[in-house]
Amino acid sequence: MSQKFDVIVIGAGPGGYVAAIKAAQLGLKTACIEKYQDKSGKLALGGTCLNVGCMPSKALLDSSWKYHEAQADFAVHGIDVKDVAIDVPAMIGRKDTIVKNLIGGIAGLFKANGVTTIEGHGKLLANKQVEVTAADGTVQVYQAENVIIAAGSQPIDIPPAPVDQDVIVDSTGALDFQAVPKRLGVIGAGVIGLELGSVWARLGAEVTVIEAQDKFLSAVDEQVAKEALKIFAKQKLDIRLGARVTGSEVKDGEVTVNFTDAKGEQHMTFDKLIVAVGRRPVTNNVLSADSGVTIDERGFIFVDDICATSVPGVYAVGDVVRGPMLAHKASEEGIMVAERIAGNKAQVNYDLIPSVIYTHPEIAGVGQTEQQLKGDGVAINVGVFPFAASGRAMAANDTAGFVKIIADAETDRVLGVHVIGPSAAELVQQGAIAMEFGSSAEDLGLMVFSHPTLSEALHEAALAVNGKAIHIANRKKR
Question: What count of Cα atoms within 13 Å lies in the side-chain half-sphere of residue 329?
Fold first, then answer.
């Protein structure tokens, strides 16, 4: 007889492992299935985000920024550093250690909360049975009262540039370079492409980013995206917009990329090429034909507002369902579903999910953009405060960018907070907290912010919404 659980979670990424821990905390007998193995063949919990995504990329972003600062910016502080060098294998080793520690942390949390870990590939069958195929090919079937599918996503391949994980790599391969490539190509000017391009550009690579769209960062507030493009150009990221890759050829350890843009046919040769054109849901071989769960033509699982599928007792969260492919969105969906299974009311506010690009300066936003609101015909007031006018940013020698707050012209309710600059992610989170409580720009303006802090830029932007900023000249009302 198959072992029975109250909840079986397929996938141990940010959606799955958080759902499993929460379900166990709520008194449900819970198991979590994961097949991913590290380089040594050991089970590695944490999914893409922890193993080959958010966490390792942030480790490299921080290391590369420190190198860049030591090389280019220490002199302004009066610090004289001679012959700064980067030891790439040591940097990669540090990243690997951080990942290993985090994986161990999840295993410890599973143990502490009584979550059963099942190693292998999970597949949902009919009647909420889950088939697990181990690495050695042995198969076991488990019965569940409830199933949460959290299988995550994987990089999209494109035929003109097939990944070989040597010369042409995906985002995973780009985290393991053992030397700085002299010439680096990146296909895709999205979050992943910009972050990974930034890492290697700081370390000395000549980086060209090839983007098919004519508009840069189309989902980001236009004013922020425009500023970002200017800043990245100063950082010597060569971003080619409206450039469509038509083919590539690997020869003698380098790759020639063919693409078309406004100037016609182009050819560029690189030592390494990163393909970062997006990600697709992992739903292939996760659902049996008779499971009853429906997916769309792009492979996403159909769910309602509380992540329930077409089968009672079966839920799906994270990258396999609609919405942004963000780790924090997946985690909150996992918690919501676990609470629902336990009979509690829970909901995710999809209108207030912050998004961040961890370049330097960071780019972050929450709520609606100016172009969205104008497109919807909403009358708005906008307040902007530049970090160039922030004493704290000056002290840190980090004054690029600004804070932008958008409020409803009639009610003064904050509808969007967008930041490009130092600690953008943290400042946007402050905006998200205010918006969750229905704050007006005036409310933010009336709060006391400590001085000197970067947070004061948020305070001043809120004041600027209604023409009351103190530390910049206010726009004259027409």
Answer: 23
